[in-house]
Design goal:
The complex is a heterodimer of chains A (370) and B (254). Chain A is built from 13 helices and no strands. Chain A is an all-alpha fold and 370 residues long. Chain A folds into 2 domains: 217 residues, Orthogonal Bundle (MetI-like fold); 56 residues. Chain B has 254 residues and is α/β, with parallel strands linked by helices. Helices cover 37% and strands 25% of the residues of chain B. Chain B has 9 helices and 10 strands. In chain B, the strands form 2 sheets. A 6-stranded mixed beta sheet of chain B has the order 6-7-8-3-9-10, sandwiched between helices. In chain B, helix 3 crosses helix 4 and helix 4 packs across helix 5. The chains are: A mainly alpha (370), B alpha/beta (254). The interface between A and B is medium-sized, with 22 and 25 residues.
């Protein structure tokens, strides 16, 4: 015993107890998230009121008052959405001017895309060894199917269009911009002055110029400089520009990730005798890319939506098809919102999917706290 | 001079020879005229105030730092800009860092097998076998499949030691291996290092653990302002320091 009042000495340590019930459950959640104080309670009620005003009108317009069948715009009465064009035009929104008798080729491409992507994106799938090879071969298979050759009728790339065009340009950009971005990011941090200057120059130039300008240059100016016998397919030129543009942004996103890796990680690799490329591949990039996932996916989503800019150089992607229908005398003034809404829906599905996947990936790779 | 055991005093088999080493960080003269010969199987503890250049000195031995003047010869190979030599030396010299520097995205076992597989080109199964042997030696084989973030600091540092040993180095460099650890974990790391010293490994240890120095070192080196101020056997270093600077340092840390 001590003579001091603060004297304590514990004979045994306290066991753990579960958290009190009032902090869990539905009521607890509501109180914590929606009604934690008077301000959030007011905001909750106000938000519900706004939704109550907007949602019924939207549903009424889009579904209840909507016209679903009809041959021409005049079949649609003025109130309510006009969806009558859907059954004649939906294929064009998706395939553009691709010959209808060859739609099956596009469909097969899309069907094969699912396993090709799955084997790249998820581990622990059955037959994943062969699956990876299939993923690598997919671009070639897809190109042959889409363009033709090997006994298939050739389809000119200016017949490509609709959402299919956005998907193709977006996928090519996504698949190529990541490795190019990595190389540029490493180049920008290189100790070799020429490599570094090239990377910095490339990144800053591409980032400093609007994508539309680059597209115009690629389509209109480039042929003036190239000898006339050199012709590069218009679609390929567009894909190159979109890829290059996204790569510059990607490089900066990845550079941010690289800078977050402590110096000690580089040193540990060096001290064990790993070379530069081994260190990068085995130690630095896996960590840097993991940190950069949100930024990388952000760039992917931006790139995918930027594919709609091809409209200004005369390619008819899904927005091009929407404009085409809006200015069609048969439908004039009847389908302005509806066509854009459909395009938005297509994009939203894909972009939201990418976003969810990135969350899943972040969770899967989070080895620090599990 | 009284030597502890297997003492290489007089044994002429130097594994590290440093002559006239000078290094600057910008205008800051961090290492000044360092001459140091380390015999095979010798265990050297380097101490000194912060900023005295002790970490920089051992980082020059595996070329994590480049020196501007003088020569550093490790196991018969001189460190120059020749990348092949640097890689050859790094394969033979293990290093343990203050901040452990484990790879957080790899399991403990993968941390240990990475360099043997990619640098030594060892088959995976063999690398894993060796890794488990060393993980047992540092007394954490049961953590092999966990990630570093799930381990305590002391366990992480022991993994780092095992990871270095998996390359089967001739020399081990320790850069303040216990400075980032909670007091309760220092002992478990020091025990592993004492065990390693008993196995005849050549060790250069930058540390302030004077008990460790007294127990295992053949030689204690005291550095200040980029110079070797005093070097002696642990007994003479602690009991009979010569320079005033050493006496002051010892009076402050003991």
């Amino acid at each position: 015993m001590s003579k001091y009042a603060f004297h304590r000495s514990r004979a045994e340590m306290l066991p753990e107890r579960p958290a009190p019930l009032t902090s869990t459950g539905v009521i607890g959640w509501l109180r914590a998230n929606l009604f934690s104080n008077w301000l959030s309670a007011v905001l909750t009620v106000a938000s519900i009121a706004v939704l109550a005003l907007v949602i019924p009108g939207l549903i009424e317009w889009a579904f209840i008052d909507a016209t679903l069948t009809g041959e021409l715009g005049k079949d649609c009465p003025s109130e309510g959405a006009c969806w009558a064009w859907l059954d004649q035009r939906i294929t064009q929104f998706f395939y553009g001017f691709y010959p209808p008798e060859a739609y099956w080729r596009v469909n097969i491409c899309i069907a094969l895309l699912v396993p090709a992507l799955a084997y790249m994106l998820f581990d622990r799938l059955p037959y994943s060894r062969y699956g990876r090879w299939f993923s690598l071969a997919y671009p070639v298979i897809a190109a042959i199917l889409l363009v033709g050759g090997l006994g298939l009728d050739v389809v000119r790339t200016d017949q490509f269009g609709g959402f299919m065009l956005n998907l193709i340009a977006g996928l090519v950009g996504i698949v190529l911009s990541l490795p190019i971005g990595i190389v540029l990011a490493l180049g920008r941090r290189s100790r070799m002055p020429i490599v570094r200057m090239f990377s910095v120059g490339f990144i800053e130039f591409i980032r400093g110029v609007p994508l539309i300008t680059l597209l115009f240059v690629a389509i209109i100016l480039l042929p003036l400089f190239l000898p006339p016998q050199v012709t590069l397919d218009q679609l390929i030129r567009v894909m190159i520009i979109i890829t290059v543009f996204a790569s510059a942004y990607m490089a900066e996103v990845i550079r941010g990730g690289l800078q977050a890796i402590p110096q000690g990680q580089y040193e540990a690799g060096q001290a064990m005798g790993l070379g530069y490329w081994q260190s990068m591949r085995l130690i630095i990039l896996p960590q840097a890319l993991k940190i950069s996932i949100p930024g990388i996916v952000n760039t992917f989503i931006g790139l995918f939506k930027d594919t709609t800019l091809v409209i200004i150089i005369g390619l008819f992607d899904i927005l091009g098809q929407a404009r085409l229908l809006q200015t069609n005398p048969d439908w004039l003034g009847k389908v302005d919102y509806e066509t854009f809404l459909l395009a938005a829906l297509f994009f939203f599905v894909i972009c939201f999917g990418m976003s969810r996947y990135s969350l899943n990936l972040e969770k899967r790779l989070d080895t620090e706290r599990r | 001079m009284a030597e502890a055991d297997a003492a290489p005093a007089g044994a002429q088999d130097p594994i590290i020879e440093i002559n006239g080493l000078n290094k600057w960080f910008g205008q800051f003269h961090v290492l000044r005229d360092i001459d140091l010969t380390v015999e095979r199987r010798e265990r050297i503890v380097i101490c000194g105030p912060s900023g005295s250049g002790k970490s920089t000195l051992i980082r020059c031995i595996n070329r994590l730092e480049e020196h501007q003047e003088g020569t550093v010869v490790v196991d018969g190979v001189e460190l120059t800009h020749n990348l092949k030599n640097i890689d050859a030396i790094r394969r033979e010299v293990g290093m343990v860092f203050q901040q452990f520097n484990l790879f957080p995205h790899l399991t403990v076992l993968e941390n240990c097998t990475l360099a043997p597989i990619w640098v030594r080109k060892m088959p995976k199964a063999e690398a894993q076998e060796i890794a488990m042997k060393y993980l047992e030696r540092v007394k954490i084989p049961e953590q092999a499949l966990k990630y570093p973030g799930q381990l305590s600091g002391g366990q992480q540092q022991r993994v780092a030691i095992a990871r270095s040993l998996c390359m089967q180095p001739n020399i081990m460099l320790f850069d303040e291996p216990t400075s980032a650890l909670d007091p309760e974990m220092i002992k478990e790391v020091l025990e592993v290092m004492v065990d390693l010293a008993g196995s005849g490994m050549t060790m250069l240890v930058v540390t302030h653990e004077m008990g460790f120095a007294a127990q295992v070192a053949n030689r204690v080196i005291f550095m200040d302002e980029g110079q070797i101020v005093e070097q002696n056997t642990p007994e003479d270093f602690f009991n009979n320091p010569q320079s005033d600077r050493t006496k002051l340092f010892l009076s402050q840390i003991l």
